[in-house]
Amino acid sequence: MEVILEILKDGKWHSIKELADKTKLHEFKLQMIIDFLANFNFVETRKQSGEIKLTREFLKIIETEKMSSRNKRF
Predict the structure, then answer these.
(1) Alpha-carbon Rg of the chain, whole angstroms?
(2) Beta carbons within 8 Å of 16's beta carbon, 6+ residues apart
(3) pLDDT tens profile 14-37
(4) Is the pTM for the entire model greater than 0.90?
(5) pLDDT value for 74
(6) What pLDDT shows up at residue 3?
(7) Per-position b or e across 38-64, b if 16+ CB within 10 A of its CB
């Protein structure tokens, strides 16, 4: 899942096929992960075109966590 989030953190729309190619996950398994992320409103999906992107809210959480991690380093 970490690889998927890394790809999606640019905030742009990505096709499920692209994610499957980059992660080497079978599209069925990838769809299960996407469904999980969608259930928690971490991603938006375009069912007709098969595209996905992170929600603005989740992007903010990721950015806040990244900033917090940087501040904890010595």
Answers:
(1) 13
(2) 27, 30, 31, 34, 50, 51, 52
(3) 999 999 999 999 989 999 999 999
(4) no
(5) 53
(6) 93
(7) eeeebbebeeeebbbbbbeebbeebee
Q: Are 31 and 69 in contact (CB under 8 A)?
A: no
φ and ψ at residue 17, rounded to 5 degrees = -60, -45
Beta-strand runs (E) in 14-56: 14-15, 43-46, 51-54
Dump pLDDT digits (tens) for 49-69: 999 999 999 999 988 877 777
Tell me how long the chain is.
74
Which residues touch 25 (CB under 8 Å, ≥6 apart)? Answer: 19, 33
pLDDT for res 41: 95
Amino acid found at 55 = T
3-class state of residue 16 by DSSP: helix
